Structures are given as C-alpha cells and as structure tokens.
Amino acid sequence: MRTSQTFSISFITRKKKKQPDLALLYARITVNGKSLEISLKRTIPVDKWNQAASKLSGSSSESRQINKKIDETKAQLYKTYDGLLKEGLLVTTQTVKARFLGSDQQHYTLAYLINYHKEKMGKVLKYGTMKNYTTTENYLKGYLKAQYHTSDVYLKQIDYQFILGFESYLRTLPSLQNNGVMKHMERFKKLMRLAEHLDWIEKNPTKRFKLRFDQVDMVYLNKPELEKIKNEIFEKPVLTINRDIFVFACYTGLAYADAKALNNNHLQIGIDGNKWIYTRRSKTNTAVRIPILKEAQKILDQYRNHPKIDGTENLLPVYSNQKTNQYLKEIAKVLKINKKLSFHTARHTFATTVTLANGVPIETVSKLLGHTKLSTTQIYARVIDSKISSDIDVLREKLNLLQAKENSID
After folding, report:
1. Could you list the residue range(s) of the whole structural domain that residue 148 is in?
2. What angle do CA 335, 337, 339 make, to 5 degrees?
3. What confidence score (pLDDT) does residue 390 get?
4. Do 246 and 359 sit in the same domain of this protein?
5. pLDDT of residue 393
6. Residue 398 lies in a domain
7. Smallest Cα–Cα separation from 170: which of 152, 186, 192?
C-alpha cells in the first residue's frame, strides 16, 4: 500500500576528476530509506549549481534546458513510482530505475521489435521486401555497435538524437547514396510506427524525421534505341534470349518477377476478342490486364518450345534477375548505348516510348502498369522530347490559325 512506502527524489552533482569546474548531474531516488542514483547524462558548470533549489542558476539557454530536464525527470520518476504501485508490483529503488529506463520490459527492445515484425509480416510482405528489412536490421546493429558498443537498445531509449545518429552512420557507408539512406530510414520509421501501434512506446520520435528523396531520372529507351536492340543480331545465343525477353517487357510493361512467373494460365481472350495477359503484380498483388501487342506475341511464339521451359507452364526462358541485368549491360556495351540498362528499363520504355509517346492516355498507362495511384505513373511515365515537340507543333498550328483569323478580321 502507498502508506507503507516512502519515496523521494533529489538531484546531486559529482565533479569530474580531470575537469573540477564541471560536474555530472544525477537524480537520486530513495525508497524506504534506500537510495539509488540515475545519471541524467548532463554536464553542468559547478559554480552555477544551486543545490538547495536543485536547479542551475541564471536564465541562460543552458540553464533553461538543464532545469527543464530536471523537471521532466522528476515528473517521470513520480509517474513511474505511481505506475508500479497501481500495478501492485514490489517497489524498490531498482524497480523504479528499471521501469524508468525501460529495462524492466526486456522484450520491448529494438531487437524484439524486429523479430516480432519478421514473425508477423514474413508471410505477408514479399521476399524482396523482407530481404530489404534484413539489410536495414544489419545496419541498425552496425550503428549500435559502432556508436553505443552494444547489440540492442530499449525502445524508450530511442530518441531523436538516436535517429539523427543512425542517418549519419548510414551516410558514412560507401555503398549508400542519399536515396538508399532514405529507404533504410523509411523502413526504420515503419518499424517504430509498429511499436507505437502496439503501445510499446508512448511517443514515436521518428515522426519528426522527414524523408528527403532526390528526384531520380528514369532510364528508358527512345524509339531509335529500341529499334536498334530489336534488330541487332548477336553472336552469343544467351544475349539473343535476354534481348528478346527484354523487348517483350518493353511491349507489355511487365516487371521482372511477373515476366518470370508468366505461364499459360495468364493468357486469356480479352473483351476485344484478342489475346490478353491476365495476371497480378507480384509486388502489390494488383490485378493487371494487358492486351498482347504484335511484337510481344511474336516473342511468345518464338519461345513456345524452347528447351529451357520444356515441360513447364512457363512462357519465357527467363534467367535470374542478376544474370539478366548482367547480360543487358553487355548488350548496351555492344550496341554503344550509353545507358545503364536493367530489366526495369523495359517497364519505363513501355510507359514512355511505346505508350505515352504514341498518344495512349496516362490513365490507361496507369492501368496497364498496375498502379493504384496516377501519381505513381507520373513518376514512371516520362514525357520524352519527341512528344514535347509534337505537342508544341500542334500548339503552333493552333496559334497560327488564331493569328490568321485576327488578321482577316482586321
């Protein structure tokens, strides 16, 4: 019961041995006559400390910040003490300190949160997404080891300084550019939001952190480049195969995973009586329906009985993503196309050169790509120079007609 307990809080300082004019600040908690100290991790000038008032003298910015920290600590310690009493737990200096620091809830650590996320989301999120979370986890472990010399941290100990420190740590890694850093920070924010929703933390410090992505130019092939790749005769058969599958994606807009998974069950007769691809995007599970253009059908016919897919339901002999991109780089080098080709370049090419540049409305392109928001398509679908030129020619013609009418009236 409360009447059987005595609880008090005071604040003391301890001078630094090598800097006697500075002192470390501590909160001293006393329960039933037994005391324990908690470091506030603050250094203060000795001559400004008023022990009687447990405050730093003066009205400087430093004094206001230290005094605010003292008031907040005092309020939190009383709240901690009251909480233990309400829960009927044994109240000691150790349990108050442990609850205050978060160490009485050992499962509410960053490592526990990450493992919980793996367990709950491992079967919901795609393999690639979970693989990215694992990379973020490894970077968090590296940061903890480098900055704090530990392997884990309690969630309530994560503050805004911790977040900024993690960002700075990521920026020291030679393999990461700004957008890579922001993707890891984005996943960290999602993890902390999960902890907030689970009521494992009262406040989510990552809410204040703003993601700052650099705008990236999408790589796509213009019409002459696409024709060049289509018409080239390669000496290596493996380059021919990967070129053909790349071109197929240029005329369907399918992402790598969806092209690799394509099988006979995905071929349907569409509303117009022609062959369509009916599938779902592996990344988002969004339904996609794509009319098969002549160029794409030609490639499907060409590989119908290919040995690599013989005995399977697959429609195309797609290599691994790594190998495919490796061969595409070789193709670009052979053809002297000074662009960093990857399989995803085909998707961008479909959105720009194949569809938008030929007058297909962006709303239709969005449906073909399987986007749920038009704004996503606007990022992918670049307006190429030839389209700008043709649009301006139409504008010039309209302006000339208006000018001619005005002149005839005069």
Report:
1. 110-208
2. 145
3. 66
4. yes
5. 76
6. no
7. 186
β-strand partners of 56: 49
**Apex CA 26: angle with CA 21 and CA 27, to 5°?**
150
363: Cβ contacts below 8 Å, ≥ 6 apart: 374
Put simply, whether the predicted model's pTM sits higher than 0.85 gets the answer no
Q: Based on the domain organization, do 136 and 76 belong to the same domain?
A: no
pLDDT on residue 18: 87
Write the burial class of residue 4 (CB in 10 Å: 0-12 exposed, 13-18 middle, 19+ buried).
exposed
Altogether, the residues listed in the chain come to a count of: 410
Task: Answer whether 212's CB lies under 8 Å from 182's CB.
Answer: yes
DSSP at 333: H
Give me the pLDDT at residue 384, please. Answer: 57
Average confidence (pLDDT) per 10 residues, the chain, 410 residues: 71 91 94 92 92 92 93 94 77 85 71 93 85 95 89 84 96 94 97 94 93 84 94 94 96 95 93 93 88 95 90 91 95 94 94 89 91 79 60 81 77
Residue 63 lies in a domain: yes
Residue 407 lies in a domain: no
Reading the block at residue 394, the tokens are: 């139409």
- Cα–Cα distance measured from residue 70 to residue 25, given in angstroms and rounded to the nearest whole number: 9
CA distance linking residue 175 with residue 164, whole number of Å:
19
Say how many domains are in the chain.
3
Rounded Cα gap, residues 211 and 307, in angstroms = 48
- What are the beta bridge partners of residue 10? 28
The distance from CA 316 to its chain's CA centroid, rounded to whole angstroms, is: 31
Does residue 188 contact residue 140 with C-beta atoms inside 8 Å? yes
